[in-house]
Amino acid sequence: MAEGLIANRLALIGIGLIGSSIARAARERGLVREIVVQTRSPATLERAKELGLGDHYTLDMAEAAKDADVVIASVPVGASEEVAKAIAPALKAGAIVSDVGSVKMSVVRQMAPHLPSSVHFVPAHPIAGTEHSGPDAGLADLYVNRWCILTPLPDTDPAAVEKLSALWRGMGANVETMTPEHHDLVLAITSHVPHLIAYNIVGTAQHLGEVTKSEVIQYSAGGFRDFTRIAASDPTMWRDIFLHNKDAVLEMLGRFSEDLTALQRMIRYGDGNGLFDLFTRTRAIRRSIIDKGQDAPEADFGRHKIAAKAET
Amino acid sequence: MAEGLIANRLALIGIGLIGSSIARAARERGLVREIVVQTRSPATLERAKELGLGDHYTLDMAEAAKDADVVIASVPVGASEEVAKAIAPALKAGAIVSDVGSVKMSVVRQMAPHLPSSVHFVPAHPIAGTEHSGPDAGLADLYVNRWCILTPLPDTDPAAVEKLSALWRGMGANVETMTPEHHDLVLAITSHVPHLIAYNIVGTAQHLGEVTKSEVIQYSAGGFRDFTRIAASDPTMWRDIFLHNKDAVLEMLGRFSEDLTALQRMIRYGDGNGLFDLFTRTRAIRRSIIDKGQDAPEADFGRHKIAAKAET
Ligand SMILES: NC(=O)c1ccc[n+]([C@@H]2O[C@H](COP(=O)([O-])OP(=O)(O)OC[C@H]3O[C@@H](n4cnc5c(N)ncnc54)[C@H](OP(=O)(O)O)[C@@H]3O)[C@@H](O)[C@H]2O)c1
Ligand SMILES: NC(=O)c1ccc[n+]([C@@H]2O[C@H](COP(=O)([O-])OP(=O)(O)OC[C@H]3O[C@@H](n4cnc5c(N)ncnc54)[C@H](OP(=O)(O)O)[C@@H]3O)[C@@H](O)[C@H]2O)c1
After folding, report:
1. What is the reported pLDDT for A306?
2. What number is the average pLDDT over the span A38-47?
3. Best CA proximity match to B76, nearest among B40, B52, B42, B112
4. In this structure, what is the dihedral angle of CA atoms B283, B186, B15, B154, given to the nearest 10 degrees?
5. Sorted alphabetically, which SUPFAM superfamilies does this protein's record hold (chains A, B) (predicted)?
6. Which residue(s) pair with B125 in the sheet?
């Protein structure tokens, strides 16, 4: 499958949901000749071996980066600087270094200063994932028809950007390029604040006196259960996202709260028309998301069918 | 299927998602001998006929209620009083009158004063639904393994409560009884506030200057798209819910906002441990919801599989 070949040696630093999905996709689609898998703990490394995710396995980041044409870090955003420091001395000239972190300005600040000028640094973020973590959670088709955002710095070699782009397209993704600043604002509203308010409402529901936790669980099909899926996402990953995209998150959260206060007033003063107008406007956006292939068109995400099947 | 028979004549006032799901389930499971379908508009009535949802069809509420053993109103909460007034003179002695409204104190206040003492009033609320509306959206198995809450008044005949309960169990639901007051608090946190914040974040995302609407749509897989499903629910139904469950919604919203402010401070002052602790606590509740059969266990609600299949 040499025609699909994009690089000889791919080093994956971190092999959780995102790293292992890259391993599976790159292997299945013949995008690289060999894959080196690195992870922090012996237990995860052992599991990666059992799953056959790579050709070489190591706990040592520098060892993994040696001789690699492309190195991709898939670790919590807060570990980015440590990765850059560890791999920097081992990188070969001309190598491409990338990541998958959900925040980009902070990753650039953490990694760029440590990388030698002989390598190409192209930060990236695939907009795809699930609420599960670890090497078992990965999926070969996780990136199919999802977007991957690249945030190269102004002086990055366009050929390196194109090569990384080809790798993501090879995994089924659509690729878009923007500045790290803009990325962080876009993701604050499309991902970070939604996760924050999901975590928050689940937290609120857990410490009510009048309504018990078992009632909340029992009647969750009224809407609440959707939020619990998001609020079941990995705590380390999300702690790092909020700490490292602080400014954009606080900015978007401020607007959310302002709008919520207006909505609260409409309820308090019985402004039915105001409520109706907002609820009508918000409907249209769902249609567009389905039309653009970014969500399943089925009622209730199609899970109703899955549940009904499981019961019969 | 006489052994499953619970009533002779069932009158359905309103034949949208909820009413038509009752029609389908009651028919399929042989719970009633005949179904009378009433709706407000000739167009919806025509569609109900085409779908074969009943045995008799009428635009007149009183006409529908005449000779019925059980009458169930499935209309927006704000239309409850109008229904009670219209059907009251036509009801036969001993009939059971019920509803499916998402708010219960207001429905009791609107309907109880108009109903004759010769009938049994048993308000109900099935905790099941989708973001779609109208008679085409109904599903025969919508209520299977979902909860239906009954909120009978203290002096209601227990036999009537049991009969309505049997009807819901016959449609596959589990039945629970509580006061209307408690119902409205439980639903405020498990359904109404989640819907409100979903509508709100979609509204916030729509009028940002720096981030365009097409960017919001494109990158919605980061979490935002889950909220758009909920925010695509029927505007009339939800306007009525917020206006009619005002006190409980404002109370729960106040707690949500208080908690959100605390979370905002954690982000501002870099309290990583505080964030990590909350995100760890919120994880557990998802597990319980899945264990209790109230959501699909698949990653991403299983929609990933549906989407991947559609693309190949
Ligand atoms: N999950 C999503 O939906 C999603 C989507 C897009 C982007 N991302 C981004 O992708 C990255 C990885 O997320 P994931 O979901 O793949 O996480 P994951 O499944 O939890 O896997 C994390 C990987 O990073 C390693 N790791 C954790 N902490 C580390 C540290 N301090 N130093 C070095 N290695 C460490 C883990 O090693 P051990 O297991 O050996 O400890 C594991 O290999 C994050 O930056 C996240 O923002 C996630
Ligand atoms: N959707 C859910 O997820 C869900 C879940 C549990 C409970 N509920 C409750 O169920 C009830 C019905 O919801 P639904 O989803 O079935 O709504 P729907 O699909 O929009 O159907 C509404 C029905 O009520 C009729 N109607 C609307 N406005 C009316 C008015 N002012 N006077 C008389 N009839 C009127 C409609 O008639 P025409 O079409 O002929 O105009 C239609 O037959 C609501 O009270 C809601 O709170 C909904």
Report:
1. 56
2. 98
3. B40
4. 150
5. 6-phosphogluconate dehydrogenase C-terminal domain-like, NAD(P)-binding Rossmann-fold domains
6. B149
The whole domain housing A73 covers 2-177
CA distance B136 to B44: 10
Question: Measured between alpha carbons, how far is B273 from A42 in angstroms, rounded to an integer?
Answer: 26
Residues B206 and B168 in one domain: no
Reported confidence tier of residue B3, pLDDT bands at 50, 70, 90: low
In terms of domains, do B256 and B108 share one? no
Q: Please state, in angstroms and rounded to a whole number, the distance separating the CA atoms of residues A21 and B285.
A: 27
Residue B2 — very low, low, confident or very high, per pLDDT cuts 50/70/90? very low
Point out the domain boundary residue: B140, B158, B178.
B178
Total Cβ atoms within 10 A of residue A258: 11
Residue that is last in its domain, among A149, A177, A205:
A177
pLDDT for the residue A305: 64
Is there an atom of ligand 1 within 6 Å of A98 CB? no
ipTM field: 0.94
Tokens of A222: 């009224």
Judgement on whether residues A213 and A288 belong to the same structural domain of the protein:
yes
Count of A–B CB contacts within 8 Å? Answer: 364
pLDDT of the residue at B303: 82
- C-alpha distance from A21 to closest chain B C-alpha (Å): 14
Query: Ligand 1 within 6 A of A54 CB?
Result: no
- Say which CATH number the domain at B219 has: 1.10.3660.10
Pocket of ligand 2, beta carbon within 6 A: B 14-19, 39-41, 44, 74-77, 79, 82, 100-102, 125-126, 129, 133-134, 234, 237, 241
Which residue lies with its CA nearest to atom 3 of ligand 1? A129
The tokens describing B81, both together, are: 């009083």
Domain co-membership, A16 together with A165: yes
Average pLDDT over residues A260-284: 97
Q: Domain count for chain B, please give it.
A: 2
List, for residues A50-81, the tens digit of each pLDDT value: 999 999 999 999 999 999 999 999 999 999 99
Rounded CA-CA distance A24/A139 in Å is: 7
Among A92-96, A206-210, B120-124, B199-203, the range scoring the smallest mean pLDDT is A206-210
Residues of chain B neighbouring A307 (CB-CB closer than 8 A)? 145, 293, 295-296
Segment B63-91 shows an average pLDDT of 98
Same domain? A167 vs A238: no
pLDDT band at B312 (very low <50, low <70, confident <90, very high): very low
Same domain, A76 and A212: no
Distance from CA of A67 to the nearest CA of B (A): 33
Only one residue has tokens 């009525």, namely: B240
